[in-house]
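Milestone 3.1: sequence recovery, worked example.
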């Protein structure tokens, strides 16, 4: 049997470094596949593995049966002019990103709630009698309870925090207080002393965290954004920090990336900026998830039944 042809178009992701893990995963599952880095010439690919691909890929490759997005967020791909409407899009589901993002969030939650940045560095406090917070733990609100948000919520619950979650549909997660839908957003935000955004960016979540929503948070709340920058209205975040309504923000994702050098987020003393590093995509688990999906598609399973199938109408 001829090998399955697979076009690889990974922008800003060192595409060559993906070939060996992909080849190994397919070999391991006994599927003959030929991978080609997309260079503008069509190869008659049956599948495409992409991250921020050029629109030209879809004009050239007309026989695609599925497109694999090497990441969890698909807003960029779905917005791409020329993305064929009739080819299913699949995204990664966790694939090793969730534990790293939970670690990132837990690190900052500990830093915020226990004042851990008082220690270390040349100005370290040399005071044995420092305040040790012993009061009731603050409520943490996790927006988005998908593969990644639910994992973050579980890890925070394990460390003893009261965790509230907000999603489109109600969730049952032991110990978590679930809020669902726009009608319950105000009640959810009202108890989130630390708000963690892990929502996908869609027509419904763009600009969701604006002046009005920041005012719904308890006074002196913190915001941690690991979802997408477009969910936060930048100027409203800065205004909420400057008025004291918010105590601080930890931002890993931005409307424009890389965050422009002149952007006020870089210079605000109560904003911590990290350069979109909370959830890197580990190659081996990602390759495994792709080969498992290809195996099932080749066996005739409908793409809608596979994990990570993107429902285009809802945008995630
Ligand atoms: N910073 C990083 O390095 C990094 C890395 C990976 C991912 N991300 C971001 O994290 C996002 C989430 O990834 P994931 O794999 O957890 O996604 P997912 O499994 O698709 O989960 C999305 C969650 O958001 C909820 N949601 C979507 N639209 C909503 C709305 N309008 N109102 C309320 N809830 C809504 C969904 O609710 P239902 O469960 O009810 O459908 C679901 O719980 C990605 O889209 C990406 O943008 C960032």
């Amino acid at each position: 049997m001829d090998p399955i042809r697979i076009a690889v178009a990974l922008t800003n992701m060192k595409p060559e470094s993906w070939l060996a893990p992909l080849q190994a995963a397919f070999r391991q599952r006994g599927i003959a596949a030929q991978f080609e880095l997309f260079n503008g010439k069509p190869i008659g690919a049956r599948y495409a593995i992409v991250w921020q691909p050029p629109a030209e890929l879809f004009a050239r490759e007309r026989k695609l049966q599925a497109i694999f997005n090497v990441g969890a967020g698909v807003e960029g791909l779905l917005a791409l002019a020329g993305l064929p409407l009739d080819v299913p899009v699949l995204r990664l589901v966790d694939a090793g990103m969730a534990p790293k993002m939970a670690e990132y969030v837990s690190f900052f939650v500990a830093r915020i709630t226990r004042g851990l940045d008082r220690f270390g560095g040349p100005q370290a406090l040399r005071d044995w009698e420092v305040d040790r917070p012993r009061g009731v733990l603050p409520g943490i609100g996790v927006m988005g309870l998908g593969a990644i948000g639910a994992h973050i919520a579980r890890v925070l619950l394990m460390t003893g925090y009261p965790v509230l979650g907000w999603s489109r549909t109600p969730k049952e997660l032991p110990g978590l207080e679930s809020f669902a839908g726009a009608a319950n957003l105000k009640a959810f935000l009202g108890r989130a002393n630390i708000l963690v955004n892990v929502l996908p960016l869609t027509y419904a979540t763009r600009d969701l965290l604006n002046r009005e929503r920041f005012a719904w948070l308890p006074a002196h709340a913190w915001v941690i954004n690991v979802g997408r920058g477009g969910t936060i209205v930048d100027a409203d975040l800065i205004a909420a920090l400057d008025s004291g309504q918010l105590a601080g923000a930890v931002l890993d994702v931005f409307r424009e990336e890389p965050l422009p050098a002149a952007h006020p987020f870089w210079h605000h003393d109560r904003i911590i900026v990290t350069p979109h590093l909370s959830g890197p995509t580990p190659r081996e688990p990602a390759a495994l998830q792709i080969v498992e999906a290809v195996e099932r598609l080749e066996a005739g399973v409908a793409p809608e039944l596979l994990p990570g199938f993107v429902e285009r109408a809802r945008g995630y």
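The first helix runs from residue 16 to 28. Residues 72-73, 97, 144-149, 166-169, 198-202, 204-205, 226-228, 252-253, 276, 278-279, 316 surround NAP (CB under 6 Å).
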